[in-house]
Amino acid sequence: MKRVWWLAALAAAYGAVPLLLGADNYIMSLIVAAMVIGCVALSWALLGNLGGMVSFGHSAFFGVGAYVSAIVTVKLGVPVLAGLALGGIGALLASVVMLPVLRLRGPYFALAILAYAHIFRILATEWTSLTGGSGGIANIPGLPTILGYDMSGKTGAYLTILTIVLAFALAYRAIRASHYGTALRAMHDSEDATRVVGVNSTLLKGLMLMVSAFMAGVAGAFNAHYINFLEPDYAFNGLWVTLPIVAAIFGGYRTIAGPVVGALVVYLLDQLVFKTLIPTGHQLVLGGLLVAMIIFSPTGLLALLRRKDHA
C-alpha cells in the first residue's frame, strides 16, 4: 500500500502539477525555488542523519557548484547537463578541503564549515579574472532542449529539478539501506564502540560529507542555469543554509521525503500566505511555525501526519 501511495505521488508530481499549474509562471517559479531549497535540505539531512554532523556552511557547496558550472559552460563551452555534474564534482572537491575539520564535533564542526563558506565567498569576490568578482557572471546558458522539449521554461525547469531531487532521494535511500548506513547509524549510539569493532568512523563521515556536498553543488549549478546570472553574495548567501535547515527540521530530517515536503510547505506558505498577510516581517511567522512544530512534533511534519493516520 505504501508503494502505491508513493507511485501515485510521483504520477501527480510529474503529470498533475505541470498540467494544472504549468500555465501559471509565478506559481511554477515558486515551486521550482522550493524544490531547489528541498534539494539542499535533503543533502543537509543526509549529512545530519547518516553522518551525525550539523552543518551551517552548505552555502559553500551550493555556491561552488553554481560557479563551477557557470564558468565551464560560459568560458569553456561545456554542455549544460555536463556542467551540472561538474558543479557537483566541484562542490565535492571543495568538501575534500574541509576534511581536516572532521576531527571537530558539535558546534565546533558547524562553525568551521561556516567559516569555509565565508572563505569561498571571498575567493569568488576577489578572483575577478575567473568569477567576474562582485559583478558576477551574466548570460549563463539556460537548461537545454531534451527530446524536442525546451527545459529552460518554468515547467521544464520544474521537471528537471524534480528528477534531480528524486535521483538524490533514491541514492539517499540506497545508502541508508546499505551496510554503510547500518554502520553510520550505529555510530550515533557509540562512535567509540564502532571503532572497536573495526568501523572507520572518520572515513564514513568524510564520505557522507562528500556525498552531501555533491548534492548541494548540483542544486547550486541547476539554480545558476535557471536564473542565468550569478554573483558572490547571492551564490553564498546564508539563506541557502537557513531555509534548508528550517525545511528539513519542519518536514522531518530523519526521513527521506521530509526535507523536500518541508521545503514545499514552508516556502510556499511563506510566499503565498504569510508574505501576503504580513508584507514586512513575514518570516517571523515562519519562525513561530517552526517553533510550534518542534514543540508538538519534534520529529517533523511527516511523523505528525503518520500519527494522525494511526489515531
UniProtKB/TrEMBL annotation:
CDD domains: TM_PBP1_LivM_like. It comes from the Bacteria. It is a multi-pass membrane protein. It is found in: Cell membrane. One of its GO terms (molecular function) is branched-chain amino acid transmembrane transporter activity. Its main location: membrane. The keyword Magnesium does not apply. The chain crosses the membrane at residues 25-47, 54-74, 80-101, 108-124, 157-175, 196-222, 234-253, 260-278, 284-305. Keywords: Cell membrane, Membrane, Transmembrane, Transmembrane helix. Pfam families: BPD_transp_2. InterPro entries: ABC_transp_permease (IPR001851), LivM-like (IPR043428). GO terms for cellular component: plasma membrane. This is Branched-chain amino acid ABC transporter permease. It comes from Rugamonas rivuli.
